[in-house]
Design goal:
alpha/beta; seven-stranded parallel beta sheet; six-stranded parallel beta sheet; 13 strands; globular
């Protein structure tokens, strides 16, 4: 069994792809995987610990605003298409599984030309332009939210799909299941030593995503002088986006390798509204303060959290360092509110998405 995993440009697509890969590899140890992503994104570095072979291809991002870079996009897609044909012919996969990012466009086109089975996953509440373009070519489509079922036609017949075929499946969003395994007191102690944390002080975990979040980091930098007085801070700054601040209670990392330990020790999580992070917060029932990336798909993801009372959602434009410290202080000592948002975020989506999507892929491989 051979499977190509496709996604990148940001860290968001990597986590669901790896989650499914780990699930299938556990059941079928001889299965072979190849991850195809961008050369400039964080995906290659994120994959090091999972020992998954990686290849990069050229890909053109179509920006939904005027930019001279849009002129070059079709040529980059064409180059990526030629590279994808070579990769697919050489690796000869049974299936291609794509989870977002414009890098998926050339390889899915190539896979369809070569008559390979294709599964695409829609993470966010609002369908991405990439998945809208690719959906007619997909054998199966999986979505995180039930609402998203209507965003993709079940089967138009244009590419040979039966109108009666169930092509779109509501699965939820895959996450790294090792994060949900109960952590022992011995492991907690080891993680506390690894992060350099005291036992008697609250912990705030700040996640800006694999590529970082400059706007959020700037607010955190303003807040740190006061934030470290009331809590210990574990901060995932993003690659190359560190903050010049030194204090025994501040612990910055470009990428956190021990996410299981970081989540287990955290009392409150401050993060963007990327679906991979929201999925993990949901599975782990974490109390979260969400600052969505302005003018992006994240605003819709955050709106779902707000309506569901599943997190405290604060627009970045209204947030300052001083206000963030006040918010953290209030949430930290309001146990009733914490319990409410923890319960609501847990109920937000199905928690067996990894198993569901793995089964869909395996069924297609075995047909």
């Amino acid at each position: 069994m051979k499977i190509i995993l496709v996604g990148g440009g940001t860290g968001g697509p990597v986590i669901p792809l790896v989650a499914v890969q780990q699930k299938i590899q556990k059941e079928f140890p001889k299965a072979k995987f190849l991850f195809v992503g961008t050369s400039s994104g964080p995906e290659k570095q994120m994959l090091v610990k999972y020992n998954i072979p990686f290849k990069s291809i050229a890909s053109g991002k179509l920006r939904r605003y005027f930019s001279l870079l849009n002129i070059f996009a079709p040529f980059l897609v064409l180059i990526g298409f030629v590279q994808s044909l070579s990769i697919i012919k050489k690796f000869n996969p049974d299936i291609i599984f794509a989870a977002g990012g414009y890098v998926a466009v050339p390889i899915v086109f190539a896979a369809w030309i070569l008559k390979k089975k294709i599964v695409i996953h829609q993470q966010d509440y609002i369908p991405s332009l990439t998945n809208k373009i690719l959906s007619p070519f997909a054998t199966k489509i999986t979505v995180s939210f039930e609402h998203s079922l209507k965003d993709f036609l079940s089967g138009s017949g244009i590419f040979g799909y039966s109108k009666n075929e169930q092509r779109v499946h509501w699965t939820g969003n895959p996450f790294r299941e090792e994060l949900t395994v109960d952590i022992s007191e011995t492991e907690k102690k080891k993680a506390r030593e690894e992060f350099g944390l005291k036992e008697d002080m609250p912990v705030v975990l700040i996640l800006g995503g694999a590529t970082g979040a400059t706007g959020l980091n700037n607010i955190i930098e303003e807040a740190l002088h006061e934030l470290v007085k009331i809590s210990q801070v574990i901060h995932s700054t993003g690659i190359g986006k560190g903050i010049s601040f030194n204090h025994p209670n501040y612990h910055p990392y470009e990428l956190i390798s021990n996410m299981k330990g970081a989540y287990a020790l955290s009392d409150i999580v401050i993060s963007r509204a990327g679906m991979s992070t929201i999925t993990e917060l949901s599975a782990l029932k974490k109390a979260a303060i969400i600052v969505p990336m302005p003018d992006s798909h994240q605003t819709e993801n955050a709106a779902i959290l707000l309506v569901s009372q599943a997190a405290l959602v604060i627009p970045q434009g209204t947030l300052s360092g001083e206000r963030l410290v006040d918010i953290v202080r209030k949430v930290m000592y309001d146990w009733e509110y914490q319990n409410t948002i923890r319960e609501n975020i847990y109920k937000l989506m199905p928690h067996n998405a990894t198993e569901k999507i793995s089964k869909i892929i395996l069924d297609l491989c075995q047909k």
